[in-house]
Every structure is written in C-alpha cells, then in structure tokens.
Amino acid sequence: MAAETADVIVIGAGLSGLTAAREIQRAGYSCIVLEAEDRVGGMLLSVDQYPGSTDSKVAIDVGAAWLNNTTQSAIWGLVQRFGLTTEEQNSEGELLREMEDGGILTGTEGNKKLTPDELKAMASFYAHLGATVSSIDPAKPWTHPSAAELDSITLAQFCAQHASSSAPLIPLLLNASVRYLLGAEADEVSALWFLAFCAAGTGLQNMMAARAGGGQHLRIREGTQRIATSLAAELTPGTVRLSSPVASIDQSTTSSTSVTVTTTSGHSFRGARAVLAVPTPQHRSLSFTPALPPAKQRLADSAHMGCFGKATLVYDRPWWRDDASAAVGPLNAIFESILGPVIYSRSTSVPSTNHWSITGSIVGAPGRRWAALPTAEERKKAVVEQLRHGFGAVMAGGEKAVPEPVAYVEGEWVGRKYFGGGPVPVMGPGVLTEVRGALTETFGRVHFVGAETAEVWRGYMEGAVRSGLRGAEEVVGELRKEGHQQAGKL
C-alpha cells in the first residue's frame, strides 16, 4: 500500500500536537495527525454524562483541569477564542488534614500545634527553596552553578540537607506537594529537575495556589477537553486519524528529504517533517530508523510518569459547607492526607448550576496502591470511606452526616496504555545534567513537543500549547528554507 503524503505528520492529538497542526496549516502547509486513542485531547478528558449531568450541564475533568487568566496567556487565549465558561476555584472556609496516625485536624488546629521553632524552621526552608528556584533558568537549568550537585541528589535529600530536624513536618509537606504536582515521591525526582520545574511554573507556592495567577485558579465548566475538540474542529477535515497508534518512524531514505511514519496496522504516512507530541516514556514503544541519538535514548529510558488519578464525587447539596459543626464552621472541601488514597481534594462545584462535587487527587505511592485495586467499585469504596472518615470527624452528625454520592467519576491513568500515568514525565538524579537540552532538540526531520518540553508552565496546559507553537515555528521555518510550496493558508 502506497504511503499517504502530507507536508507534516504529527504524532499525538493532545494539546501540543493539535496546536502544532493548527499553526502548520495556518502557515499554508498540509498536515496529518495520528492519534492512538479513539478521541483527541491527551490528558484533557472530560466526562459529561453522569447522574445529574443533564441538569447541571457541568463536565467533570478526570485529567488536566486548572488554569489561570494572567500568567497563562496561551491557554487563556484558547478559552476566550472558543467562548468557554470559567469557574473560579473557591477556597473559602476551613480545611482538613489527615495525619499519619489517621487523626483528623482542621487547618487551624494543625497550625496551632506548631511551635515557634517549627514555624521558624519551615519559613527558613521554604525561603531557601524559593531562592534556589528563582536562581535557576528553567530553559537551561544545567547552567546553574550548583547544577551538578543538585542533580546528584533527590529532592528528599535536598530537604534533609536544608530542613531543620526541629520541624519534622517539612519533608511530609514537601512530599505531599510532589505527589500533588507530579504523582511522584520526593525520593524519586532529581532536586535540580524539580526546582527547574518549579521555576518554569512561577514557583512552588504559586503552582499550588488557587488565587489569581496561581496554577489552580480557574476551571472550565464545559470541561477542558472542549479546548482540544475545538482545536481539532479548526483543522482541515480529515486531518486527524483516530485509533492510529504509531509503530515506527523511519527517516533512512537515501535522499534524506522525507520521514515515513507507520502505524501498528501497517498504514504508512510520508512527510517532509514529523512532529512527535507524545510523552518521552512512550518513545520506548516506537522503532526509530536510524536509532535515537544517545541523549534522547537516555531520556526515553530514564524518564517515567508519575502515578496520577482522580475521583470526583457528586452530591445533591453542599453538605460540607452546611452541616459542619458550629465549632468548625463551613468547610471548603480541601482535604489533605498523608495516607491516601486521596492526597488532596477540592470542591469542584458550580453553585450557579446547582452542581456540587468534590474532586480528589489520588497520586504517588498511595495512588499506586489505589490503582492496583482490581475493580472500579473497590476503588470507589476506598475513596468514599476515606472522605467519610475525614469529613465525618467534624460534621455535627458525625460520619453518618456524610451522604453517599449521587455519582462517582474516576480517572485512572496508570493503566492507560498510551499514558502509563501522569501528569508529566519526571527525571531522577543524574539525567538532566547528562542530556541537557536533548529534550527539545530536533532529530533529523523529527521535532519534539509536549508539555514536558515547555520553558514556561512546564507540565501544564499552558506549557503544552506553548510547546506546540514552538514546534510549529520550527517546522514551518525548515519547510520554508527547503522551498516547500504552500497549499494556501487557513
């Protein structure tokens, strides 16, 4: 069967791949997008059919969900272009913490237990961490004066070196942040890699924050996947080929003027350039001819996805706000836990539509244990029982006051063949200073994009869009230099 041809073959129909395809077509070049899944969006996956969904018209995001409208101009521009409705993240009220012994404390109670020495030690450590983050160039972290030292240790070791032993809560809090942001553990990631990740995202505290400009500020009522489907709809009809997993990328032709991409079903596509828009660990499943350069192969072999999952519980009313004991006051549905399976929860309610829900992040080591449960019903039971125990501790009516959810929607990403976890590939010690800028380097006629490659808001939707724009700019520049004829701009 003859290969189908286009100027550019894009592999992956997530945000970065779709953005690249859109910009390539806007520049007047033809493009085919191959997607392994039966849908577009990558880690943008929204569920809009569940009990009560017809009434509320609110989609549940089981993948990427949050953004902001100040420091994330690329993704915000798409939200505006497609006329999507945003919902500001509400954090008003008291939060809860589940401690190592299973005890439940309110945020106020937990803070009161901290001694002046502990507070001083925590302030000192996070000030040092923040200063180190600010000193790192997220585009070239290996140029930092202490890069070799920072990349030789894990983040857990960095914490042990710089956190006072008088504040044992520091390593627990830091590890909780790593779990929430990356689905990993602090002893799995390079200190340099994590600090550079924070530098790309405007700092650790801001990445975790729901305030304006923070990483958790806004949600999309229609679901973030609508951004991807809207992007795909702007492409020339027939551009996106779903259920087309790629098996090989061959650029060994004697003329060296093309690259051939072949799917697992044997269909071949030939272009002058290819854009690879899948997570680095997925490169291991692809056959490259010629083989990947050593640095890129090292990345493929070493980077790994964190454990990432979500569970959303839908209720018929905001009981956490209305039924908490008078001594505690209204809760904001934030629940932090060291034990899991839920490590961190937030309200994902939309009051104006009478949609009431709590979404829990199930990540890191506790997430792996949860993902290993054999059935969805067992996973649901683990989440419901944990939240009933946690919230029931401060309900006026105890655990009995925590109702059964009217709907339960989960997103378990570890078991998904073309993801293997999420939200972004992480690096252990010794990799970043060895491979340096190999992550974004072009290999022959193959260009590499994805949220993990972004210099700004790495690992976020903003980073994905920016990387797609970068990849398209690279490709269009090369096509123009080679004199490829434009088919006509969109």
From TrEMBL:
FAD binds at S16, E35, A36, V246, E452. SUPFAM superfamilies: FAD-linked reductases, C-terminal domain (SSF54373), FAD/NAD(P)-binding domain (SSF51905). Its EC number is 1.4.3.-. Belongs to the flavin monoamine oxidase family. InterPro entries: Amino_oxidase, FAD/NAD-bd_sf, Flavin_amine_oxidase, Flavin_MAO. It comes from Lasiodiplodia theobromae. It is an enzyme of class 1 (oxidoreductase). The gene is mao. Its cofactor is FAD. The keyword rRNA-binding does not apply. The keyword Ribonucleoprotein does not apply. Residues 15-475 form the Amine oxidase domain. It comes from the Eukaryota. This is Amine oxidase. It catalyses: a secondary aliphatic amine + O2 + H2O = a primary amine + an aldehyde + H2O2.
